[in-house]
Amino acid sequence: METKLFNNLLGILLNVVFPIKMLLRLYSFCILMVDIAWVVFNAVCAILQAVYELFRPPPLKSVRLETALVIGSGRGVGREIAIQLADLGAIVLCVDKNSTSNDSTIECIKSKGGSAVGYTCDITKKENVQMLAAQLKKDVGFVSMLFYCCGIPSPRSLMTQPPQDIHDTLDVTLTSYFWFIDHFLPDMKAKNHGHIVALTSVAGLSYIKDQMPLSVAQFAVQGLAESLTEDLRVNKIDGVHVTLTHIYPFVVSDESANIKLRIPSYFGTITPSKAAKSILESVRRNYFEASVPKHLLYLGHLLRILPRKATVLIRDLLDTGVDFA
């Protein structure tokens, strides 16, 4: 009798619990479907927005009275960025280890009525970066824009010089960049205002022959920029932006007149001034990633999703085939 009663009670209990479990599973499944639908909807919206912005880019933001720190302002693209920032009304802080070329940049800016201050620093030494950061904060206070233009090789150095020392390459291209971010990013986060710009060679999109240390360092800079962007997103800081720009060194160079390219009509050549203008346009539109020339960015994205064999074939086709006259 007791056994029969126990079995009856157990049966009633199971009949009650089983539907509850089913309902909980159904509820969880419904929540999952809603989350998936929400992600798909937002992904489609993001794709449509990206396509729309190809034809109607975001408006250019003003950099007037922004305090812009340009590391590597003595020559090339860094020099042109500093000059054009000053033309746009920014207060430019020029940093380079070559005082003569850096002074030339400052003189050019001031001759056009711009505002610039120069600092000489070997950024490969941490203590130098610390001293420079302390001096900058003392002189100007808040640095709202950081342009890191170091580590971009010239075409001739890529072809005529031996592969770079691993430590020197990483120090110039990546480690020093970390140090500057450590010093200036916290203030940007606190004010929820700022822009960090990293320039890399196209080695950050694809390997350059016989330049493994450089390629590894440039890939690392891309990873740093993406990690930094994710850190800002997770911490809900929407006023600080990051822009990563890949520069094809055989296209942007004062020495390009003596360089023969395999496909001139595809690559072409542009001056550092035009390259700087393109970079600043991407920065002022708050783009995360850009390239000089612009079409190489889409090529880089394409190479990431294609099968390995197809990627190798395209790289062989578009290999620079560089030769010097």
TrEMBL record:
One of its GO terms (cellular component) is lipid droplet. The chain crosses the membrane at residues 31-52. Keywords: Membrane, Oxidoreductase, Transmembrane, Transmembrane helix. SUPFAM superfamilies: NAD(P)-binding Rossmann-fold domains. GO terms for molecular function: oxidoreductase activity, acting on the CH-OH group of donors, NAD or NADP as acceptor. Pfam families: adh_short. Belongs to the short-chain dehydrogenases/reductases (SDR) family. This is Epidermal retinol dehydrogenase 2-like. It comes from Trichoplusia ni. The gene is LOC113496357.
